[in-house]
Design brief:
The protein is α+β, with helices and mostly antiparallel strands and 502 residues long. The protein contains 17 helices and ten strands. It is elongated and about 130 Å long.
Length: 502
């Protein structure tokens, strides 16, 4: 907005100018949602309407005990700044008097002010400026509460400093009331945004608390995804980039919430670090102990009827116990999430067909079907059913997030978050999308999600790997057609990971 240092000459032209400027200003104030930028717009707009060369704006501190100096503008000095500092909220200053009295103060010449009004000329003396006319009006909300005050300094008409007349005072007062309401709306909008942001981040913390080994993952993925969008935008490889502010914020939140669907995954599956759960291993140990005791009883009974020497019975029991312990140790070691050896596979198959007899005379298998399935896994810790349950989190993410009213500014967020496991060759999930059907923001999240999962701190089922090797793995995904090379190039060549250290 350009500042007008003089108003049109005729009354008709002046009226049209004021009406046009007021309409333009109100449109800008209504659209502005950032309280800090809004303050600057308020002061600049009020100065423009009344033809003030300079001005300043103060807001009342939350404790209502002081006035905070927020904006200063001066066309003659080329000044437009956001100063810091406070004034006591007392009648010792002109702005303090206006706020406390809730009424405007119009001084044709600040150095000839009525008794009891003292002009502080510290700025004038330090800056080589001369304040003459000053109009100070309170900023109020719809309930009449004073939010602050605006000082309009040196009205310029035909190149000379003149006093603010009653017409300018009336205009400024009207504008201050409208500006106060706009400021309240902007503050409410900022508070709602902060509340929403806090809710999103608290949700992420709650989700990650279910699996402490992934703590911080979503926050890192969000920072990396936005960093990748910025890096790819600088390279000019995508027509959609750089992103508009709303799209950038959508990407940030979608990346933060990409694992939100894990809230619908059973915890024993979500945190499964070995092929068998700890309680399953404990059950296996107890069963083998019972098998050992049962075999001891059988050997002792057989020896009693056959008259076998005690030493021979003890040797047979010891041999069986040793073999049993060795077998149990192999099974426990085989529960680790590492490739299953041929020996382990053969052992599991053998034990699956082997029976023991309980006290009731009922034959029971040495290994349950569940244990056979888990211990036979060639790699990792999840059975196909458990892996499907984990993969369901992507569909859960969209289902849960779609139930929230994101509004127009974050339109499309659920779909972007849910597609973070889709691959452009169609091999991903949950929908198997191909090529451009995978949203570009989702593709960015996919790249950085893979990277962070590889390089994050050691997890129970695997060790963290170094940056260079993780980048090599990303390029292997490019070579088989799962990731877009342009995104991986941008991620690696632009050192996007540096955003985590800032």
């Amino acid at each position: 907005m350009e500042h007008q240092l003089s108003l049109p000459a005729s009354d008709e032209e002046r009226l049209r100018f004021e009406q046009s400027t007021l309409l333009d200003l109100m449109a800008q104030l209504t659209a502005e949602r950032d309280p800090d930028r809004l303050l600057g717009r308020i002061l600049a707009g009020m100065r423009q309407v009344v033809g003030a060369e300079a001005g300043s704006l103060y807001v009342v501190d939350e404790d209502a005990a002081a006035l905070r100096f927020r904006v200063a503008q001066n066309d003659r000095l080329g000044l437009s700044s956001v100063p810091s500092g406070t004034l006591p909220l007392t009648t010792a200053s002109i702005v303090g008097q206006v706020v406390l009295s809730r009424s405007a103060l119009n001084l044709p010449d600040v150095r000839r002010a009525p008794a009891g009004i003292v002009f502080n000329d510290t700025f004038d003396r330090s800056a080589g400026y001369r304040t003459v006319s000053m109009l100070t009006v309170p900023l109020t909300d719809a309930q009449g509460q004073v939010l602050g005050a605006v000082q309009l300094i040196n009205r310029i008409e035909r190149g000379a400093v003149v006093a603010f007349d009653s017409h300018e005072q009336h205009l400024a007062t009207r504008m201050a009331g409208a500006a106060g309401m706009a400021l309240v709306n902007a503050r409410l909008s900022a508070e709602i945004t902060a509340l929403f942001d806090g809710f999103v981040r608290a949700s992420v913390l709650a989700i990650e608390a279910r699996d402490p080994t992934t703590s911080g993952h979503s926050i890192r993925v969000s920072a990396l995804a936005v960093g990748l969008a910025d890096a790819a935008g600088r390279r000019g490889d995508f027509a959609e980039l750089p992103m508009a502010q709303n799209d950038r914020r959508t990407l940030e939140y979608a990346a933060l919430l990409h694992d939100f669907g894990k809230i619908g995954v059973r915890e024993e599956v979500l945190v499964k670090a070995a092929k068998l759960h700890p309680w399953e291993l404990q059950g296996l140990r107890q069963r083998f102990e019972v098998i050992g005791l049962t075999e001891e009883v059988r050997l002792l009974r057989t020896a009693l009827h056959a008259g076998t020497p005690p030493q021979a019975v003890e040797a047979a029991i010891a041999a069986f116990r040793s073999e049993l312990d060795h077998t149990l140790e192999a099974l426990i070691d085989g529960s680790a999430p590492k490739p299953a050896s041929p020996e382990l596979q053969a052992l599991v198959t053998s034990l699956g067909g082997q029976l023991w007899t309980d006290r009731a005379g009922k034959p029971r298998p040495w290994l349950t079907d569940r244990e056979q399935e888990c211990l036979s896994l060639p790699y990792g810790s999840l059975t196909p059913g458990e892996r499907n349950a984990i993969q369901d989190h992507a569909a859960f993410t969209e289902r849960f997030l779609a139930a929230m009213p994101w509004g127009r500014e974050l339109d499309g967020l659920p779909g972007i978050a849910a597609a973070h496991h889709e691959k452009i060759d169609g091999s991903g999930y949950p929908l198997g999308l191909v090529g451009a059907a995978v949203p570009l923001p989702s593709q960015m999240i996919t790249v950085v999600d893979i990277y962070d999962a590889l390089t994050a701190l050691d997890r129970p089922y695997r060790k963290a790997i170094e940056h260079e090797r993780a980048c090599d793995i990303l390029y292997k995904e490019v070579e088989v057609g799962r990731l877009d090379r342009r995104l991986v190039d941008a991620f690696v060549e632009e050192d996007v990971v540096e955003v985590l250290s800032t």
